[in-house]
Amino acid sequence: MGKIIYMDHNATTPLDPEVLDAMMPYLTDKFGNPSSSTHSYGWEARQAVEEARGQVAELIGARAEEIVFTSGATEADNLAIKGVAHAYRQRGDHIITSQIEHKAVLETCKVLEKDGFKVTYLPVDRYGMVDPEELRGAITDKTILVSIMFVNSEVGTIEPVEKIGEIAREKGVLFHSDAVQGVGKIETRVDKLKADLLSISGHKMYGPKGIGALYLRKGVKIEPLLHGGGHERGLRAGTENVPGIVGLGKACQKAGKVMKTEAERLAKLRDRLYEGVRKRMKRVHLNGHPERRLPGNLNLSFEFVEGESLILSMKDFAVSSGSACTSSSLKSSYVLLAMGVPEAIAHCSLRICLGRSNTEQEVDHLVKELSKNVARLREMSPLYKEV
Q1: Where in the chain is CATH 3.90.1150.10?
Q2: Contacts of residue 249, Cβ cutoff 8 Å, sequence gap at least 6
């Protein structure tokens, strides 16, 4: 079997060679503890951590002191939501989010509900978009936090976060955005989004796994999740993951250089893929917004074809049927169901996420294989009738 073509970049990305090169010294010779060593090994590590903090901040238009390193986006989401909830509980107990958030947000909100907080889960339209005016109507004098993602990982829809941030600020409510699928792929500037807190993940942008960051606007209070030696200004205890932090910083620096041209290239590849599918096949549904979508993302449903069966038939390609954290389940995507997609169609979905390594030749090969396998699987379906 030849090399499998990777097209699942929303789940994770390969480690960029430049990132690995930047990390290697801190996995070998430069092993100092940046927080407790008072010699050159520790100073060297501390300098590397602070340089990376500046690189992350620069990518999103923040200040270095507003970046808190975490073990990943799940911890960043938990720290943001639980941290604000407990720090501002005397002011109110109401949180607003959406029905299609990542599980790291949804499950965190469910835990807070058990702790007495009230959570409003906003619906989305058929494109997966939150209505900013519905958000405005949901805010009460007890609302302390709005948490709406920047880009949906399954369907690629880019949420109207600028308007959402504007409304939250107008109402005096803090705004958090899980921006994992946006940072490093499309322009993400915290001042433009009017975000008070924003979550970042290394492995979604050609950095290492096990590292992430939370942007925390100066003046915003949070209660830490972890307690210990006062690392990260007392907001995240634990010895810093220096190699991971250096890798995240380098990944952010690289993204800042290539993001614009790469987004344009991926949008063309994505459109080539979609047009190829539409020409060869009927009864194919595009899930997500047709225009406000991540450049490399395409989520399609093929009627009369079960998504998992289609994936198993595509032996030359690494693609998925949902977000990485739910792909082990055979249930229909909760994101698609929240968008009003009928369950029979939602169960037929395929998520294709293009990245830096993908080419026109690979896209054309995928279209050809999809056409062949969809036709074969449809012929096996007792429900299929040619239109």
Answers
A1: 5-11+259-380
A2: 22, 51, 52, 53, 54, 55, 56
Which residues have C-beta within 8 Å of that of residue 253, sequence separation ≥ 6?
55, 58, 59
- What is the phi/psi pair of residue 317, to 5°? -130, 145
CATH topology of domain 5-11+259-380: Aspartate Aminotransferase, domain 1 (3.90.1150)
Query: For 273-293, what is the HEC assignment?
Result: HHHHHHHHCCCEEEECCCCCE
Please name every residue paired with 157 in a beta bridge, in sequence order, or none if there are none: 293
Out of 252, 325, 348, 353, the active site residue is 325
The pair phi, psi for residue 46, each rounded to 5°, is -60, -40
The model carries a pTM of: 0.94
Active site residue 325: yes
Task: Label residue 386 by pLDDT band (50, 70, 90).
Answer: low
C-alpha angle 169-182-12 in degrees, rounded to nearest 5: 140
Percent of all residues in the chain with a pLDDT value above 70, rounded to a whole number: 96
Ranges in the chain annotated CATH 3.40.640.10: 17-255
Residue 207 DSSP one-character state = S
Instruction: Tell me the torsion sign for CA atoms 183, 211, 63, 103.
Output: positive
Q: Tell me if 96 sits within 8 A of 144, measured CB to CB.
A: no
Q: Which CATH number fits domain 17-255: 3.40.50.460, 3.90.1210.10, 3.30.450.40, 3.40.640.10?
A: 3.40.640.10
Which is nearest to 200 in space by CA: 213, 182, 190, 216? 213
Residue 326: predicted pLDDT: 47
Cα separation, 346 vs 348, whole angstroms: 5
Res. 1: pLDDT tops 70: no
Structure tokens at 91: 């002011």
Mean pLDDT of 10-26: 98
Which of 182, 192, 160 shows the shortest CA–CA distance to 102?
182
